[in-house]
Amino acid sequence: MPLSAVAPRAEPAWIRPYFDLRLDLPVHFIDEKTVTATDVDPQQNRFRLPIDGVIRNLRPVLSHLDRRAANLVHVEAPRPRLPKLPKVPGEKTKKRRGREHGGLPVLVIERYAGIRELQLTRWESSGVCVIKGEGYMDFINNCGFSVGDVVEIWAFKQKALRLFGVDIYQEGYQESPLYILFIKKGQLLPPPRALVVSDGGEETAQEHAP
């Protein structure tokens, strides 16, 4: 589907009052995707984001430093995977060690899983963009997603003050983290008021606003 054919999406009515967001703070629809087997596979340990939505809707939200951290400064289309060569009987193959990927810290939110700090990055080897990190499988299991579920992806970030269309960075000013919301299609009601904030260890319930 061409990028221009994607219609604007109205934000869920509960997002803005729930997080006490300013009226002039945009909440961005990134894309929707169908959950695949690899998204819930412990061997993969990541959630793949639609690259078109990342380029079109998420990348403009990020600062230059954010893009560098997420490896989204120079973005190319994902490269097609080459077919694996058949193994020769009796031949020993050396397992190739993958490159360590960092990423941009993001706060990922889902109705049942609460909030988890994970990382957003684009893998250079394949060109795909993913959310991953320590505690990912706990988070995605708590989401209760099944293969075939359709999930809407939304994001918002408290940016610098704007004056005449220009970002004004005051001394000591810090942008908020990037918040990424997973909303299963059909779940329009807000989550419980006290979201579970997990740091990979203890889990605490607290009200959360950017």
Question: Would you mind describing this structure in some detail?
Answer:
With 210 residues, the chain is of the alpha+beta class. The protein is 12% helix and 28% strand. The protein contains four helices and eleven strands, in the order αββααβββαββββββ. The strands form two sheets. Strands 1, 2, 3, 4, 5, 6, 9, 10 and 11 form a nine-stranded mixed sheet that branches. It has a two-stranded antiparallel sheet with strand order 7-8. Residues 1-5 and 95-99 have low confidence and may be disordered.
Describe the secondary-structure layout.
Blueprint: H1 15-18, E1 28-34, E2 46-49, H2 51-58, H3 64-69, E3 104-110, E4 114-122, E5 129-132, H4 136-143, E6 150-156, E7 161-163, E8 166-168, E9 178-184, E10 195-198, E11 203-206
Parallel strand pairs: 3-9, 4-10
Antiparallel strand pairs: 1-6, 2-5, 3-4, 4-5, 6-9, 7-8, 10-11
Name some characteristics of this structure.
210 residues, alpha+beta, 9-stranded mixed β-sheet, 4 helices, 12% helix
